[in-house]
What does this fold into?
Amino acid sequence: MTTQVHFPKLHRLIHWLLAFSILFILLTIFLRSTWMDKSNIAALIQSGLKTDNLAITQQQAITIAKSIRNEMFQWHYIVGYIVGILVLLRVFYTKKVGVFMPNPFENNSLHDRLQGLLYIAFYLFLAGVVITGLVIHFLDHDFIFYAQCKAFHKLSWWGILGFMFIHIGGVIFANGRNNKDTITKIING
It folds into this structure.
């Protein structure tokens, strides 16, 4: 693979907006499945009401908990739209400027071919997340393949998370070995 002299501003902007958007969405997923889990919030609501000698059923508490949690999770949807737009921008940008990754189907080194395949997998996972997210959001439980879409949506996030760890580790490794300015190039160009 030829070494990239610099990354244009638009490339860097899309890269970092995509990176921070993905991190933000992962934060909403983490919050929804831990501190803002409906059962945890419902228990807190019931406990708080009990101190005032009030009581509601578990189902009523869960309904209130879901409405509290949904306020936070709206940001998951909003930033999800941003990710979708950024993926489209990346596709158009790549068509106009060219690809900034090695071609895994050419006779490159094993490293370059694996790197190219990893990027392809990442963008396929990202497209899968965007498409299934739209299906889940708009068609909800009425859609016949709702459960399968939701399962694939979650599975795709694991693929994206795996890519992020490999990508960050690879950049740190490359920056420490032969490409001393790898990190600088994606920040400053």
